[in-house]
Design brief:
Elements lengths: L13 H28 L1 H12 E4 L8 E2 L5 E13 L8 H12 L3 H8 L6 E7 L1 H9 L5 E10 L7 H4 L11 H5 L1 H4 L6 E4 L13 H4 L5 E4 L3 H18 L3 E8 L5 E7 L18 H4 L9 H11 L7 E4 L2 E4 L2 E4 L7 E4 H6 L3 H8 L4 H10 L21 H6 L1 H8 L8 H12 L3 E2 L5 E5 L5 E3 L7 E2 L3 H17 L13 E10 L5 E14 L6 E8 L8 H20 L15
Parallel strand pairs: 2-7
Antiparallel strand pairs: 1-6, 2-3, 3-4, 3-5, 7-15, 8-9, 8-20, 10-13, 11-12, 14-17, 15-16, 18-19, 19-20
Helix pairs in contact: 3-4, 10-20, 12-19, 14-17
Length: 581
């Protein structure tokens, strides 16, 4: 048998094996070096980059806490709505067909929608507040080019009833007015940036969702106002304003011991759900921003000043000649009547301008001016609502340099204050002489009624003695029993009050000959005062438009609502005497 011949080329040479070994060794070294670079030298950088790719950072829009009234009635809540966008360039159907399909759901004209789709190719905002039901109906149409984005929307179920107090939140969820503005810290939940880890399909891992996003508290901001009283006040206000063609009007009710406001109603008001349809002037709470000359409703405060200063006593008498001159300036009673000798109480009951001038002339002007500062006439009340302005008082030199300044201030003109300031001052007559802080916030409460936070208001400041306050309160009761405030009487209840009819300052200087503000303030029940009620009506029309005919009947209706709702017992048995004809 012949031996097989072996080809030398079929066996690798030592040089070739060395080359292969070298290539493999260099590859292993390179791989090791690269692994060392990736896992050691660049480990932190690459780890951070990977975490950034796998982490979604979002700032979730969490619902604002609800707002409720004193009884727990809902005044403001967050609800889930949808924004509908259209992208016509993605439509598979014609614009007219898409418009006709969604028009019934949106309650809009299909022609208007089709025209809207012609404005641009993409990103058209069609509706910014669709309900979940409407959004589901649009999804069911399966139309390409329509996009639904969820968002939280603030909803005000009472509409315009308490808009002055609650305020509103704009489309960017920025608070603009009311307690929505001043209580942002209490109403807004955590706004932390949430970090979510996602898997390979961009799905969020359930275990990675922060707990504060999934679990929300049940706290709600409770107010002192009462929806039932607010409704009664607004109804009475609207009726009289319509009857007298008034420009605007307001009702305030305050608990005199605490400063808690039970009613803050203005007309005309606005619907915070549609705030964008109103002029900015209509959104302003003029009870806090617009000082006015209070007229005769300030007379009880002036009497309290004179009594406290010790220059007069309740039974002192002053001569009312109906008309006097202070330098060249004539001052007369509103009815022109000369009543002769009148006690301080009779001057209040009959609202005598001349009598009030005589009373306040017993004080030195500098002492009188210091008292105006002591009762904080030129300072805001500190109410927990935004944009409050202070009253306006003449400068000291001007007040002391002209006797007519003292005279007109005596019957409530020549200076200005806001309705809330006047209510606070009248509350001091009812509660024994203390200035309290008007407020509308009770605090944050959970669903079981347990308080979790309550605001601390400044302690009451005593400006009048209890004896002085009690004496003036008695004079105001006489004004309701037999003076200008008789239209506010309620059988069986002791009510103190004071009317006011003041000329409005003219924009060109002096006073308008036609425009006036009528008002009425009442304190009740007199034997143990609980409430101060203030009604202000701006520019009522007609020759019979006075505080007694316009404002006092509204105050009576509001007090009757308070009696019903708070179950206030009569002060005395009503007079049931039958007069034989």
């Amino acid at each position: 048998m012949r031996p097989r011949r072996v080809d030398p080329a079929s066996h690798p040479s030592a040089a070739r094996m060395l080359l292969v070994w070298g290539v493999l060794t260099l590859g292993a070294i390179g791989l090791t070096a690269n692994l060392f670079r990736l896992q050691v030298l660049q480990a932190d950088v690459l780890s951070s980059r990977a975490q950034a790719q796998q982490t979604v950072r979002l700032q979730p829009i969490l619902p604002r806490r609800p707002i409720v009234d004193h009884q727990g009635t809902s005044l403001a809540v967050d609800r889930l709505v949808y924004m509908l966008y259209a992208h016509p360039k993605l439509f598979k159907k014609s614009k007219d067909e898409v418009a006709e399909a969604i028009a019934p759901i949106l309650n809009q004209s299909s022609v208007d929608l089709a025209n809207l789709f012609d404005e641009q190719d993409s990103g058209i905002e069609v509706n910014f507040g669709l309900s979940e039901d409407a959004a589901d109906r649009i999804r069911a149409l399966r139309l390409d080019g329509l996009e639904l984005l969820p968002r939280q929307q603030r909803f005000y179920p009472q509409q315009d009833l308490l808009a002055e107090v609650v305020g509103y939140v704009n489309l960017d969820r920025e608070a603009q007015a009311g307690v929505e503005y001043t209580q942002r810290a209490a109403l807004e939940r955590s706004n932390q940036v949430a970090r979510f880890l996602r898997g390979g399909k961009d799905l969020v891992k359930p275990g990675e969702i922060p707990s504060y996003v999934l679990k929300q508290d049940d706290l709600r901001l409770q107010l002192t106002v009462d929806r039932r009283l607010q409704q009664a006040a607004r109804t009475a206000l609207k009726q009289k304003m319509t009857e007298f063609g008034a420009k605007r009007g307001a009702v305030l009710v305050m608990e005199v011991q605490t400063g808690a406001l039970r009613v803050m109603a203005t007309e005309p008001s606005f619907d915070p759900n549609q705030y964008y349809t109103y002029q900015m002037d209509q959104l302003r709470n003029w009870l806090l921003t617009d000082p006015y000359e209070p007229g005769s409703t300030f007379k009880p405060i002036n009497v309290a000043i004179a009594l406290e200063a010790g220059t007069v006593r309740p039974n002192d008498s002053f001569y009312d000649e109906g008309r006097i001159y202070i330098g060249p300036w004539p001052i007369q009673n509103s009815d022109g009547a000369a009543r002769g000798s009148q006690t301080v109480g009779e001057i209040v009951a009959h609202s005598s301008n001349v009598g009030m001038v005589r009373i306040m002339q017993t004080l030195k002007p500098e002492i009188y001016y210091d008292w105006l500062a002591k009762i904080e006439l030129a300072q805001p009340t500190g109410i927990d609502l935004p944009f409050e302005t202070a009253g306006q008082v003449k400068k000291r030199d001007q007040f002391l340099g002209d006797p007519v300044e003292v005279a007109v201030t005596a019957f409530g003109q020549g200076f200005s204050l806001t309705p809330v300031q006047l209510l606070r001052l009248q509350g001091a007559i009812a509660n024994g002489g203390f200035l309290v802080t008007p407020h509308v916030v009770e605090g944050l409460f959970d669903s079981s009624g347990k308080p979790h936070w309550q605001p601390q208001y400044p302690p009451p400041k005593q400006v009048f003695s209890r004896e002085t306050a009690q004496a003036v309160l008695g004079m105001m009761e006489k004004a309701v029993e037999e003076g200008t405030g008789t239209p506010a009487q309620i059988p069986g209840y002791r009510i103190a009050g004071k009317t006011g009819t003041a000329q409005k300052a003219s924009a060109t200087g002096g006073y308008d000959n036609v425009a006036r503000i009528t008002s009425f303030v009442s304190l009740f029940p007199v034997e143990a005062p609980r409430y101060a009620v203030l009604v202000v009506i701006d520019e009522p029309q007609g020759d019979n438009a006075y505080g007694s005919t316009v404002a006092a009947p509204i105050a009576r209706d509001v007090m009757e609502a308070l009696i019903r709702i708070d179950l206030i017992s009569p002060s005395k048995a009503p007079d049931t005497t039958v007069v034989e004809q």
